[in-house]
Amino acid sequence: MKAVDEASIQDIHSLLNVAVVGHTNTGKTSLIRTMLRSTQFGEIEDGAGTTRHVERATIFAGNEAILNLHDTPGIEDSHALLRQLQAISSRHKTLSSAEILEKFISTTSIDDPLEQEAKVIRQVLRSDVLLYIIDVREPVLEKYLVEIEVLSKAMKPIIPVFNFIAEHTEELAVWRKKLAAFNIHASLEFDTVAFSFEAEKRLYQKIQSLVELHYDRLQKLINHRAKAWDQLCLSAAKRIAELIVSVACYRENKYRHNDNIADSTAAQKLKDFVRKAEQRCLRDLLGIFNFSENDIALQKIPVSNGQWQLDIFAPGVLKAYGLDVGSAALKGAAAGAGIDLMVGGLSLGAASALGAIAGTGWSTFRRYGKEIKAKIQGTQWLCVDENTLQILYLRQQQLLAKLMHRGHAACHADQIDTAVPSASEKLPNNWPAMISILQQNPAWHKPSTSRNQNPQYQEIEAKLIKALLESD
């Protein structure tokens, strides 16, 4: 939805006009909110008759206006409305069904009990297509069938839209059967709470099939929405990948002097970093999908730490510096063993190994020199252990799925916790190897040109993004 200036009002009125109609409290405003990706349109309450006037929203493809959506008040007394139309028909036998509706509008006063229904009928006659919203949780009562009978008098295409379909398969089948009796078969399932982009695309395609004049412009909207949706999901996956990299590469220094207070402080700093990093990521993801912090409840993540090991013989580290794991010099160095920086000290064997590697022209010592010196002096590093990283990743995977399938009419807060992952929630292939490489590259903790251009980093980022998007 976008604001329009006076000069463009004429263009807006010449667009395809779609009226969203139906009984009170079936989800008409909810549908428009979901289509607009906005929680700001109209009012939604768990009670009848919330919408009292016709409201308009315009949907754009980029900067080009494509169609107007009109949110109408709920039809409250379909039986009384039908009786009134029958009375008009009996007095004016030559009028067509649409002219009878016009006569009804012109003879209904502001204080008439059917004033709300007159507002609906007025917009129906001005529109090109009608979306009739059905709450499938409701039984198929006669009043709903009467509403369809009345709306059909406008001689406008009607698309029944089934709302709140989750876990109501049997009720949906009953509704389909009843509508078939009216020769209405072109219905659509579009849950405004449990959102599906494919369902939204099918909605535009059904409108396309009914209004040939607007086919090309609707196709432009479909293409634009599909591209925007893909980009939105990609942006979210990239943000999650950045979180995983940042946390996996992060370290806190501590000294081995049996100082419990210092150890506790380092551990607490580590925990605070992880929790704050996840919270920042959550805020960014909510912004990407245009939700607020009221929409997601994120339980406090349990954080445990481990000791970071400097393993210069790790294949990932060797590859990062262009050294062939199978080289003769490296095989000889590795055979000498002797590197045990984790428990402190640099043995003669380790020194020989480093010398052998240095002889190949590799920049290992320059890369790790400060860390080796710190190790000899008794420094240790705390990092987030792999279990915590697994939980963090699976939580983000769960969060992304919920945001991708949350309609903007949803009023409940989705819970993101540390429960056992479902079958669709799993770690990327070669997860341990990726984490090992990240932990060997603490400089990747923050974005930089050198990091972003590193082929190994690019490969890990691409794998994380691919796994996140494929898991949905």
Structure in words:
This protein is an alpha/beta fold. The protein has 2 domains: 6-210, P-loop containing nucleotide triphosphate hydrolases (Rossmann fold); 234-470, no CATH class. Helix content is 50%, strand content 12%. The protein has 18 helices and 11 strands. It has a 6-stranded mixed beta sheet, sandwiched between helices. β5, α7 and β6 form a beta-alpha-beta unit. It is elongated and about 95 Å long.
Describe this protein with a few key phrases:
472 residues; three-stranded antiparallel β-sheet; alpha/beta; single chain; 12% strand; Rossmann fold
Summarize the structure.
Helices cover 50% and strands 12% of the residues. With 472 residues, the chain is of the alpha/beta class. Helix 3 (78-91) packs across helix 6, helix 8 (197-210) packs antiparallel against helix 9 (215-249) and helix 9 packs across helix 18.
Strand order of the largest sheet: 2-3-1-4-5-6
Low-confidence parts lasting 5 or more residues at pLDDT below 50?
A: 1-10, 44-50, 308-318, 320-325, 327-352, 354-365
What distance lies between the first and last C-alpha atoms, to the nearest angstrom? 27 Å
Which structural class do you get from the secondary structure elements?
A: alpha/beta
| Strand content bin | 5-15%
Number of domains: 2
What is the H/E order? HEHEEHHHEHEHEHHEHEEHHHHEHEHHH
